[in-house]
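**Protein fold record**
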Amino acid sequence: MLGPKVYIHFPGTAREALDFYQQIFGGELALYTLEEFNRTDGDPQGIAHGELTGQVCLGGADASAMDRPLRVEGMMLSLLGTAQPEVLHQWFDKLSAGGEVIDPLSDKPWGAVDGQVRDRYGVHWLIGYEPEKTE
């Protein structure tokens, strides 16, 4: 992958969160514990590194004492046009479960379909697409 990849420090919920994202987006998930990395700075079964690869790529770990856990302000992850409209609607609905719909996924005055959701782990998502033009 060229360019930045999102890497999230979760407040002890990395395994649960990354499993949740894999259930939504599919792809391959690799999880490595602190014990597997020979680290002693937390719960041995805590996640030292996790990576979801596929159509949506995310990395993450449980925040250590030296890390600040996720707190999102002024930023969102954009999935604009990254999949077919029906898939984007499914992703939006699944990310909404246990989260907060900020702006429903709907037709907008400028001609696009988009919406925003903050999922149960505090990640803010922008999801949408440009509808096919009919002549």
The chain has a mean pLDDT of 92. Residues 7-62 form a domain with the 2,3-Dihydroxybiphenyl 1,2-Dioxygenase; domain 1 fold (CATH 3.10.180.10). The chain has two domains: 7-62, 77-129.
